[in-house]
Write a structure and sequence with these properties.
single chain; mainly beta; Neuraminidase; 5-stranded antiparallel β-sheet; 4-stranded antiparallel β-sheet; 31 strands; 52% strand
C-alpha cells in the first residue's frame, strides 16, 4: 500500500475513537480537551458535547446514541509541539461508560462499577448484533503502581454489566470477528492480540484447557511496539493501531504473517473505515492532533448500528 495519507483536519487535542458517519462526517473524541467532536468533510470541527474526564473509545449503539468509554483523565505532557498522556489525572474520580445524545449533546452516565468492581480506565468498546457491547478497561498509571484490569460485557440500556475476562495486561483495542464467534483484545504494553472464542452474546466458549480464560495468541510482529485500538476488515483481518514505531499492524485470525503500514506519528492510536464501500481508512495521529485518511487494501467490516 503506497498511497500517501491525506490530512482531514489538524489542531485536535489527542484525538481517538473515530466513527465514520453515513453523512460523511467523522465523530471522534478529543481526550485532552474532554470533548466529543464532529469533523466535517471540509475539515472544520464542532463540539457535540463537553464530556469531562477522559473520553476515549466511542461507538454508535442502539437508538443512534454514541457510547463512550471514559478513562477518567490523564495528566498531560507537552513537548516539541506534541502532547502525550501521563499518569492518572490529579482530579481523577474514576472511570465510566457514558451515552451521548447526538442531537442534544446530553451526556448520561450508564456504568461506574461492575458489581463491586470499580471501572478504572475504560478504553474501547464494540457492539454485537444483539445490542450488547464489550469494552476494555485499560486501568490507570500512577508514579509507582498501576491497576490490574480486564474486559467487560454490558447492556446498552444501563441494566447490567459484568466482568468477563480478568486479568489482562492493560487491555486496549477490542473487536469482533465478522461472524461474531470470536472477540479480539489488544494488550498495550505487551503488543499482543488475543482471540477469545464466543458461544453467544457476552459468553466465552472456554475450549482451551491451557488457558482458563479461553484465549489464544495471534501471530504478531517482532520488535518493540505497543498496541492501541483496532478495527476489523471485511475479510476478518484485525487492524491494530500501533505505538512506538507508529502505524497500523494487520494480524490474521488464521495466523498468517502480519503486515504493517507506517504512519507519520509514533502515537497512532485508532482506525475506522468509511467512504464508498468502506475502503477508506481514517486514522487518528494523536500526539500531533491530526485525523488522516487513505485508501485501504481491503474494505472495512460494517459495524452494527451504523448504517453506512
Amino acid at each position: 500500500m503506497n498511497e500517501n495519507p491525506t490530512l482531514v483536519t489538524s489542531g485536535l487535542r489527542f484525538p481517538e475513537g473515530p466513527i465514520a458517519m453515513p453523512d460523511g462526517t467523522i465523530i471522534l473524541v478529543e481526550i485532552e480537551r474532554a470533548t466529543l467532536t464532529r469533523v466535517l468533510p471540509d475539515g472544520s470541527t464542532e463540539v457535540i458535547a463537553q464530556i469531562g474526564g477522559g473520553p476515549n473509545g466511542a461507538a454508535i449503539g442502539p437508538g443512534g446514541y454514541c457510547y463512550i468509554c471514559n478513562n477518567g483523565g490523564f495528566d498531560w505532557i507537552e513537548r516539541s509541539g506534541r502532547i502525550f498522556p501521563g499518569d492518572q489525572a490529579k482530579d481523577y474520580q474514576g472511570g465510566r461508560i457514558e451515552r451521548v445524545n447526538l442531537e442534544t449533546g446530553e451526556v448520561e452516565t450508564l456504568y461506574t462499577h461492575a458489581n463491586n468492581v470499580p471501572l478504572r480506565g475504560p478504553n474501547d468498546l464494540v457492539f454485537d448484533r444483539s445490542g450488547g457491547f464489550w469494552f476494555t478497561d485499560h486501568g490507570k498509571n500512577r508514579p509507582r503502581d498501576r491497576d490490574r484490569t480486564g474486559v467487560f460485557y454490558a447492556q446498552a440500556d444501563g441494566s447490567s454489566v459484568e466482568e468477563i475476562i480478568f486479568p489482562l495486561e492493560a487491555p486496549n483495542g477490542i473487536g469482533l470477528s465478522p461472524d461474531e464467534n470470536e472477540l479480539y483484545v489488544a494488550e498495550t504494553p505487551t503488543g499482543r492480540l488475543w482471540a477469545f472464542p464466543l458461544s453467544g452474546p457476552g459468553v466465552l466458549n472456554q475450549v482451551r484447557a491451557d488457558r482458563p480464560d479461553g484465549g489464544r495468541l495471534l501471530q504478531g510482529r517482532n520488535g518493540y511496539f505497543m498496541f492501541d485500538s483496532l478495527a476489523v476488515d471485511a475479510e476478518g483481518g484485525i487492524c491494530v493501531a500501533t505505538l512506538i514505531d507508529g502505524g497500523i499492524t494487520t494480524l490474521s485470525p488464521h495466523n498468517k504473517a502480519p503486515s504493517f503500514v507506517p504512519m507519520p506519528d509514533r502515537l497512532t492510536t485508532n482506525i475506522c473505515f468509511g467512504g464508498d464501500g468502506l475502503q477508506t481508512a481514517f486514522v487518528t495521529l494523536s500526539s500531533t492532533g491530526q485525523l488522516i485518511r487513505l485508501p485501504w487494501e481491503k474494505p472495512g467490516l460494517p459495524l452494527n448500528f451504523l448504517n453506512l
